[in-house]
Structure formats: structure tokens, C-alpha cells
Amino acid sequence: MAKIELWYALRLDPNGTENAETGRESEGTMYDAFIVNPVAGHGFALEAMTKAEDILRERKRQWRVYRTERPGHATELAQRLGMDPDVRAVIAVGGDGTAFEVASGMAGSGKPMGILPTGTGNDFIKSTGIPKEPMKALELILTGTPAPADIGSLNDGCFLNVGGTGFDVTVLDNTEKLKGKYRGLTPYLLGLLKAIFQYRPVHLKLTVDGETEEGDYLICSVANGRYFGGGIPICPVADVHDGFLDLVQVENVPRWKIPFYLPGLLFGRVLSFRYTRHRLVKEVRMEGEKLRVNADGEIFPMDQVCFAVRPGKLMLIHGKDGAK
Description:
Shape: globular
Number of domains: 2
Strand content: 35-45%
CATH architecture of the largest domain: Sandwich
Helix content: 10-25%
CATH topology of the largest domain: Tumour Suppressor Smad4
């Protein structure tokens, strides 16, 4: 098991005295585990966690905070913490990438997961009723009730929000280069405009719930959540509780037409495009030459990928908009 850095632990003794310590709590003491990506939001995650600790201290809530040290570390931490009987809930503190990693480790554990959104895009929370303001999200974590939510599998791994390939991958490539300068939707919008001039259609062989088809696509996305790219509603009707994934296929269009479709994409009308096909699916296999696949904002090179739904495998603490 990889080394786990315990950044800060707080314990209340029977007399109500606060004691910072680095060892385990006494056996049977329940605590919340916060997994923090220290670089999320250009340091905003650490700032928000400091404020959260003040509230936790006032509430006499017991908690521990763990910093991630490398890609994949949050999954390792979540897997271990998900098996710890003393852990009340595991909370991801970061953006969509951190939430994805924590969910990958928590799926199937039955342990509640919360999200303290402090990243650049924070797309997944928009489908779940989790407040975008971190301290409001903390209040939900402290008072909310977890409920089963769907998660997706991607080959041998997982995805939480949206996966696929096509134009959005080019956008994400451009966006990563701009995130150091801008926050929120701005890097995605600039990355999107630049992608118009770089666009090449992607040729795919698809196997959708056992049926095979082939074509050239502008976008081919598999959605568990509704938004990607910092707030773009790729599938406004997606539901993280329905036991399905939403397959959104936008056929290839001439490059000069793309700007005319951008307003519709940005304002949630993509499903009404004449070139769009939308359906609920259980499994989608994509095959193509030198594919670059988006999974929750991370890009993976591969020649084929299989997306499948894992219904109700994540116990998520979410708001009313995400409850069913």
C-alpha cells in the first residue's frame, strides 16, 4: 500500500479539549475523511479546506485530511478509507478529476462519498444538486443523506461524469494550456474557439448494446452526468440515477458550419440538432485508429474503449436536484 500522508487530524477528547495529533483515533471513533488535491483550483482547494476545518471544529465534528501526492493517489486513499469502519464518509476536495479518482476508489464500498467542489470546472456537481460554493457543499455533507448513484466503467477503470471522443477532446487539449491563466468557463470557451480551426472528424466503429454501426462524428459522448467542459450541457436530460448511460452522437459536419452550432451546444440544444442522435444505453464499445478518449476531463490514448453503466454503485451525498 502506498504511503499515505496524514496532513492534519483533529480529535476531541471526552472533556471537549481539541487535540491535534497524527495517530489514529481511539477504536470506534467515527470521523470524516477529506481527500484534498492541493493543486486543485490553483490552491483554492487548500484555502477552502482551511475554512471547512473552522466549521468542523465549531461543530465538534471529528475529521482527518489527506493530501494527494500524484495522479491516482486519491483512488488509493479512497479504497483504503472506504474499508475503514471508523470512517463516516469520504469527501473529495478538488475538481472533477479528484471526484473521479475518489469515486473510482469508493464505488461498490457502500460508504458515503461527498464532494467539496474547488476545481476549475466542477461539472459533475451540476447534475447532482451539490452547491458550487464549498461551504454550502460542506453543510450538505454534514446534514445530507446519501443515496445510490450510477457510475460508469471504462475498460478496467471507471468514469463518473462524461466520456467519449471527438471535438471535445481537441477542446480539452486546448483548455489545459489555458487553465493556468483563467478559471471557470473562460479556458473552455477559448479552447473551443481554437478547436474549430483544428477540427478533424473521428471515424468510429460502435457496438451499442450488441448492435454494430460505423460512421464519422463531430462528437461521440457517453454521459452519466449532464455537463462537461466547464458547464457545457452535452446531455441536459442525463440522470445519474436511471441505471443507463446517455449516448450522444453528433455526425460529422463541415468545419464552416461548426460556429453556427456552437450557441446551441453551449445553451443545451445539442439534442435537437438534425445531426444528433441520442439514446439510453447500457454498454458502448468504440473502436478507431489512435483514439484519444476523454474520461472526466482526462485524456487517454487507446484504439478501443468500452463504456458500461454500473447502476447504484456509488453512495453519494447530494442535494434535492440529484435525488430520486
